[in-house]
Amino acid sequence: MSARRRKQSGAGSSGVASRDRATSAESSIAWRLTSRARLEADPGGANGFLLDTYSAAMCVCNDTAWTLLRMLKRGASVERLARELVARHDAKRGVARSDALGFVRRLRRMGLVDGHR
Amino acid sequence: MGIAKPSVALTGFSGLDNPEPGKPVARAIRLGWPGPLSIHALNYEAWSTGAWGEGTVDAAHLIPPLLAGDEVAFARIMEIHRDQPLAALIPCLDLEVPVFSRLAPRLRDAGIKTLLAGSEQIQSIRKTALPQLCYRHGIAAPRTVHVEDLGDVAYQADQLGYPLIVKGTVAGARKVENAEQAVIEATRLHLRWGGGVLLQQPVAGDEYVVAMVARGDGSCLGRVAVRKLGVNHRGKGVIGAVVCDPDLDREAERILAHLNWRGPLELEFIRAHGTGRLNLIEVNCRFPSWILLSHWARCNLPVALLQEILKPGRRRMRKPRAGAAFVRDIYETAVPVTKLTQLERLKQVRPAGSRQRSPTSAKRSGRGVKVAITGISAFDVVMPGLGVARALRGAAAIGKVIGLGYGPFDTGIHRRDLFDHVFQIGDPADHDRLVTTLLEAKAAAGLDVVVPCLDLEIEHFVAVAPRLAARGIRTLLPSREALRVTRKTHLFNGAMTRKDWGAFEIPPTVKVWTLQGVDRSARSLGFPLVIKGPVSGAVAANSLQDARTVWLSLKEQGCSEGLAQSFVRGDEFAVAAVCDRQHRLTGAVAIKKLVRCERGNTWGAVRVDEQDLVESLATFLKAIRWTGPMEAEFIRDSVTEKFVLLEINGRFPAWISYCADIGANLPLHAVLTALGRPVPSETTARGLMFMRSCEELPVEASAFATFATKGGLAHGRQ
């Protein structure tokens, strides 16, 4: 990537550093589902359904998402979520961490998780 | 000490496909009231179909129209009260609330309690007063202009820009895209409600509605907020789920605090995309039609209101359960003609006893015929599959009824009383996928016969019928040629119209492709003139300008061809029938249509003995070599008394459950004939009328998502 394109895309050295710091901070704290998020298990209990009680938005979860959401209900860090993904899917650690972080960020944008130090 | 068995009078049982709130209020009170209770429906007409459901109300009374004045209304209420003492009265319609508010002191003196706002408060929330209300109290709202003179509509609409919402001063709203449409809608709404119209800038966002009950001191007794998940062609929320959003709750309570309100209230908001700002778009002085959802959300507002009316000072209700959802479907029943006549002549009747539960699969051995049905939604229009399912549900020969829905908002997929399983099907034009879906349904739930119930599906099911038959799934369908003959463009051509069909005739028709063609047809046929689309839609035009507008509207909808016919004045009839593979009728039922909704669909009817018509239709069907279910629609010319054929539909009509109610189970005929089994002889009942009303069903929000992602739901036994 050329220097100009890096600058345009905000991916300059200072941008990378601040994003790394943000990622590190996001990874180290415990995330917990907010009160507006409700989990409802399927009859079998292996997977279920996430309801945003503020908007009635709904997400049907596969068993992996369901496991992560149940961990977030009790409170879990990105690292813990990533470990679960590695254990479940034999994923590479870096990929699992990135996926777990993406999952948490998405929930955060929806107002469904809060971070706790 | 409370009243041992209070009697409450409710209004608002009409509305057909745009239901008034009386029935849901009655059902909420019925379901939630702790103890014995008597519910009285006050109707302006006998055909208020919402009051006729089994177990909904204990008595129905006719009351005079509001136009007759306060004194006449009061006298009639007192007449009812003397006969059957009423403890409380809850008006459920916007226009009634000011009347009963004025009468409240006199009703109270007579022993009938109400909880209604004063005239000043009611005036302050009128639709025409919304801009002032919002300005005065700093409430965000879309720009709204009240236009009293219809001559100003085009100018004001242009000033606001398009698209634009045109609203009636009492009810009704439609989005328009230009000044011409604005004027047409404004004229329609003004003629209906008077007082001009409101022009409102639309806000892109999600719709939320808050229903509330205010105590006598204006404080909030209870509140339920709902997000509209499914909005139909009228802009009405027919699917919704309870939400608990603190911002919405705060705003609703803030507005209530300004209103000094008493009794039920509905606030409608749009939460703007992007900003998330809540815009108040409407305030109504009554419960909304989805209010039964408050019972399923464990915050039954109609019960709370009645309790507050009878014994004021109740504690604030708990929060509703977020995620509780509703779907608006239909309820159909057969009512004795004598009951309707009694209501019309004696002004009161006891409609029916407690609700009969539909027979369920639990009662059956499970070894009966397994039938799949398409067209199972009442979201926009009532589809025939719901009636077919209801008819088959009551038949002993049927083991399982399987619904085939197109999406999670097909209301019928949530009917546990009708369907054991529901599966999602895709575009029927994708024949491989259609076959695969049906084979998967067969593997999962068993499937012997499939009954397609939508016009646009029939040709595709005809195409895949041999492949289905090879895998053990039977159908009873017409040939492609027979289907082609019944299309409007063929049915109304010269050859068909010149033949003598006995008791009915096929009207002279002029095909039109251009505006000039419309002009020519008008010159040859005169007015009123009916312009029809090649597949659906028929609009009467009284002038050349009207006819041209109708044609242009059809062209906008993508029609390259239309049909022009002379308008025939008279009563409308229909015949539902099934033909076997030798093109002979296995059975037929003729009805006279008595109540139709705005879209022209039948919501009330009665069976008629028109043997000549049925025999002539049988000859016609034999001539075109028809096989399977069908419906023929007629008008009986009020001058010549001759039946004029309007349309042939290659599937059952939506009122088909009535046939089973009177003992001619035509859907069962179709299933048995498809399997090559004999149709049992039947004895049909007389003196029953078909009656349909809307009805809300409880749904868990998860059901929508589960259907969408997993492609089905299992309601009954596996």
The proportion of residues forming helix of chain A, as a percent range, comes to 40-55%
How many distinct helices of chain B? 23
Output the structural class of chain B. Answer: alpha+beta
Number of strands of chain B: 31
Provide the gyration radius of chain B in Å. Answer: 26 Å
End-to-end CA span of chain B: 50 Å
In what order do the strands lie side by side in the largest sheet of chain B? 13-12-9-10-11-14-30-27-26-25-28-29-20
Strand content of chain B is: 25-35%
Oligomer: heterodimer
Strand content of chain A: 15-25%
The main sheet of chain A comes to: 3 strands, antiparallel
Query: Based on helices, strands and strand pairing, what is the structural class of chain A?
Result: alpha+beta
Write the H/E string of chain A, N to C: HHEEEEHEHHE
Using only CA atoms, what is the Rg of chain A? Answer: 16 Å
What are the low-pLDDT stretches of chain A, counting only 5+ consecutive residues below 50? Answer: 1-12
- Per the principal axes of the C-alpha atoms, what is the gross shape of chain B? globular
Quickly describe the structure.
The complex is a heterodimer of chains A (117) and B (718). Chain A has 117 residues and is of the alpha+beta class.
Helix and strand arrangement:
The complex is a heterodimer of chains A (117) and B (718).
Chain A: H1 3-8, H2 13-28, E1 30-33, E2 37-41, E3 48-52, E4 57-61, H3 63-74, E5 76-77, H4 78-89, H5 93-109, E6 113-116
Antiparallel strand pairs in A: 1-5, 1-6, 2-3, 3-4
Helix pairs in contact in A: 4-5
Chain B: E1 7-11, H1 22-32, E2 38-43, E3 59-62, H2 70-83, E4 88-90, H3 96-109, H4 119-124, H5 130-137, E5 144-147, H6 153-160, E6 164-168, E7 173-176, H7 179-193, E8 197-200, E9 205-214, E10 220-231, E11 237-243, H8 246-259, E12 263-272, E13 278-284, H9 293-296, H10 301-310, E14 324-336, H11 337-346, E15 348-349, E16 369-373, H12 384-393, E17 398-405, E18 421-424, H13 431-445, E19 449-451, H14 455-470, H15 480-486, H16 488-491, H17 494-498, E20 504-505, E21 509-512, H18 515-525, E22 529-532, E23 538-541, H19 544-556, E24 562-566, E25 570-579, E26 585-596, E27 602-607, H20 611-624, E28 628-637, E29 643-649, H21 657-661, H22 666-674, E30 688-700, H23 701-710, E31 712-714
Parallel strand pairs in B: 1-2, 1-4, 2-3, 16-17, 16-19, 17-18, 20-29
Antiparallel strand pairs in B: 3-15, 5-8, 6-7, 6-8, 9-10, 9-12, 10-11, 11-14, 12-13, 14-30, 18-31, 21-24, 22-23, 22-24, 25-26, 25-28, 26-27, 27-30, 28-29
Helix pairs in contact in B: 1-10, 6-7, 13-14, 18-19
